[in-house]
Design goal:
Elements (H helix, E strand, L loop, with lengths): L7 E7 L2 E11 L3 E10 L2 E11 L5 E10 L2 E2 L2 E5 L4 E5 L4 E5 L4 E2 L10 H10 L4 E4 L3 E14 L2 E11 L6 E5 L5 E3 L5 E4 L6 H23 L8 E10 L4 E11 L2 E7 L10 E4 L3 E5 L1 E3 L8 H9 L2 E7 L3 H12 L7 E10 L9 E3 L2 H13 L4 E4 L5 H13 L3 E4 L7 H7 L3 E3 L1 H5 L5 H4 L6 H9 L8 H13 L2 E3 L2 H9 L18 H6 L13 H20 L15 H11 L3 H6 L3 H6 L17 E5 L12 E6 L2 E4 H7 L8
Parallel strand pairs: 10-11, 17-20, 17-21, 22-23, 23-24, 24-25, 24-26, 26-27, 27-28, 28-29
Antiparallel strand pairs: 1-2, 1-16, 2-3, 3-4, 4-5, 5-6, 5-7, 7-8, 8-9, 11-12, 12-13, 13-14, 14-15, 17-18, 18-19, 21-30, 30-31, 31-32
Length: 653
């Protein structure tokens, strides 16, 4: 649809610039139209929506058309004359009595939910029942003055519960109507883009206050007394083997002793846990977990067994805030290290990046990262390839780790030779075998569409690819595959939830679980879903070949972190043994980050970053999802209580 002159206009923006637009305008017969157009570094969304309102102002009809990077966006909703609601999307359909409920759409332009926001405000504490399932409430937190194109204005921070795992911040205007969303990517009225960072800071401060209360409940002296886990199956991550019938004593935040089962006497006042039928492993690492902007997600990471992370791109100020609050016991979160994204100033620049216009500015950005006390730099796809070597040289001189996406115009081996210590994402690895026109446009959707189209035809055992693997191994280059990013996009067809999320469907909020069912990346150039699946199988195969020649693999998700165990299962499918797969999420990332001397394995004197899970992990990596107890900096944290606090409704399958 084409918005008329005078249509309400919102923009989608970040500190990197504008990424899209959303318009809204009235139609005849109590209908309203919405139009959304967005491109995030080449990931394109184009959707239209028409909403029909009933006499009580509830939407009784919706028609959505278009596509997103998750596939076909077509969706319909209607209420028939008998009061029965009917809905159909690319991934589900159903019907139910409309009664007093409101339909929660699967997709559509981001602004189109504004009527639901107003209804939640009016509903107050009792909230609203939703279709297909769920219940939501809204709480107004505080008022904030801002400046805009029309002068001073007051907006109100509010939190919605019921749509996600945690309270979701939104902003209202003076009349309690939807004003916008603020974050790394913001949706705000045109002309108000500049206030996005301010609103983001305010909502994060309020979220931090709420998270501090939760942290206080878990990080108590009573949870840091000595613990003896006896007669347990222990994963020795250094040796890469499981050791039966072991005893581990945890005291004063450290591993105090490791011995045969029954050989350690519990000190007075210690908690003793019977480890029979359970497995004790080092706490899990997610080596591709972007932190910042969501304290609740960090809590959920702990609940699912993650005690450490490597963030491959976070904003400096957010990172320092997280580190400070965690150290003060005000934030329940894994411990980790962070790199900062550096990208060329460009419409396709990464959100949240330090953007540069020359090699000199790139070097200055590297120094800024070092001055902030952070761990590494991550170069991105719009970087000028000529700037990589001088910037990487400076980073290495300063002791920083260098990794990233491969800039457009470079192949991964060229990036490694220019100074990369690590390459992130399997699509950039397989880019070594892509046609030049794909390589030259790797800062657009070509970085996915090229591997999706041509990956199935790559000979993984060709002399060229074999030499590529060998050079990576010789150089000790780390690879962060994030296979769970590509599995749902390439293999999903809307008929089922992808394997990384299926164990959590029954314990997630209904709206979250529904969103996990996607139609997959839109097909193009006559390709089929079977073609995409063959290409994904080649991506999995690359991981196996890299590992076989000695290239170190680190497990990362680039998601919530819930995907981590599935990432390990895919490594096992690639040819790694069960123990080798688990090493990629324990000792290998600890070595990469220089932290192996204090974490990543269970040994006397090491930090007590450990998880106890129900079941035998040596027989089934999926048992890692069944967290019984998390030991974080020596605190003994109950798995069930952690899950409840983080929005999970029970034990995953």
């Amino acid at each position: 649809m084409t918005p008329p002159a005078g249509a309400r206009h919102f923009t989608i923006s970040s500190v990197a610039g504008k990424h899209g637009d959303v318009w809204s305008w009235p139609l005849a017969d109590d209908r309203r139209a919405y139009r959304m157009s967005m491109s995030l570094r080449g990931w394109v969304t184009e959707t239209d929506e028409i909403v029909t309102f009933g006499p009580d102002k509830r939407p009784i009809g919706m028609a959505i058309r278009g596509f997103t990077d998750s596939g076909d966006a077509t969706e319909s909703f209607r209420v028939d004359n008998a009061g029965i609601a009917h809905w159909k999307t690319a991934v589900d359909e159903g019907s139910a009595p409309f009664a007093g409920k409101r339909y929660n759409s699967y997709g559509g332009p981001w602004l189109a939910g504004e009527a639901d926001i107003e209804a939640l405000v009016a509903a107050g504490a009792k909230g609203l029942d939703l279709l297909p399932r769920g219940h939501a409430t809204l709480t107004i937190a505080k008022s904030v003055p801002i400046e805009g194109p029309a002068g001073p204005k007051t907006v109100k921070l509010a939190f919605i519960e019921g749509y996600g795992f945690s309270p979701s911040p939104i902003w209202l205007d003076e009349q309690n109507r939807f004003f916008g969303n603020a974050g790394v990517i913001s949706l705000l009225p045109a002309g108000y883009e500049a206030v996005g960072p301010k609103l983001k800071d305010i909502q994060e401060a309020e979220t931090a206050r709420l998270a501090r209360e939760v942290a206080g409940r878990f990080l108590s002296p009573a949870n840091r007394t000595a613990t003896l886990v006896d007669h347990v199956l222990l994963f020795d991550s250094v040796a890469g083997k499981y050791v039966p019938d072991q005893a581990v004593l945890i005291a004063d935040g450290k591993v105090a002793a490791v011995a045969a089962g029954g050989a350690i006497k519990a000190p007075a006042g210690a908690t003793v846990i019977d480890g029979r039928g359970k497995t004790l492993t080092p706490g899990l690492w997610d080596a591709h977990r972007h932190i910042g902007g969501d304290d609740w997600n960090l809590l959920q990471n702990v609940a699912t067994g993650m005690t450490n992370y490597r963030s491959p791109g976070s904003m400096i100020e957010e990172t320092l805030s997280i580190q400070k609050r965690r150290a003060a016991g005000e934030l329940l979160a894994p411990s980790g290290v962070t790199s900062v994204i550096i990208d060329r100033k460009d419409p396709l620049a990464a959100q949240g990046a330090l953007t540069v216009s020359s090699a000199e500015e790139a070097i200055a950005a590297v120094r800024k990262v070092k001055d902030a006390g952070l761990w590494g730099v991550k170069f991105y796809t719009s970087m000028n390839p000529a700037w990589i070597a001088p910037a990487a040289t400076e980073a290495h001189k300063l002791g920083l780790h260098v990794h990233g996406h491969v800039p457009a115009g470079m192949r991964p081996l060229e990036a490694v030779r220019a100074g990369y210590d690590e390459v992130t994402h399997i699509n950039f690895i397989i880019m070594q075998a892509m046609p030049k026109d794909v390589v030259d446009k790797a800062n657009t959707a070509a970085r996915l569409e090229g591997p999706a189209k041509y990956g199935k035809n790559v000979d993984l055992d060709s002399p060229e690819m074999t030499a590529f693997y060998a050079e990576l191994a010789k150089r000790g280059t780390y690879i962060d595959p994030t296979l769970t990013v590509w599995e749902p996009m390439l293999t999903s067809d809307g008929t089922s939830v992808s394997p990384e999320y299926s164990p959590f469907v029954d314990i997630a909020p209904p709206a979250v679980a529904r969103g996990w069912k996607i139609a997959g990346y839109p097909l193009f150039d006559g390709l089929t879903r079977a073609d995409f699946r063959q290409s994904f199988a080649k991506m999995v195969g690359v991981v196996g070949r890299l590992h076989k020649v000695g290239v170190p693999i680190v497990a990362g998700t680039d998601g919530w972190g819930l995907e981590l165990v599935r990432e390990l299962e895919l490594y096992e499918e690639a040819g790694l043994s069960n123990a080798e797969a688990l090493q990629t999420a324990t000792i290998v990332p600890a070595r990469m980050t220089g932290m192996a001397g204090r974490t990543g394995s269970i040994a006397k004197g090491k930090n007590a970053d450990i998880i106890l899970v129900e079941g035998d992990v040596s027989r089934n990596l999926g048992a890692l999802r069944h967290v019984h107890t998390v030991f974080l900096d020596g605190y003994r944290l109950d798995g069930a209580a952690l899950r409840k606090a983080s929005g999970l409704g029970g034990m995953p399958k």
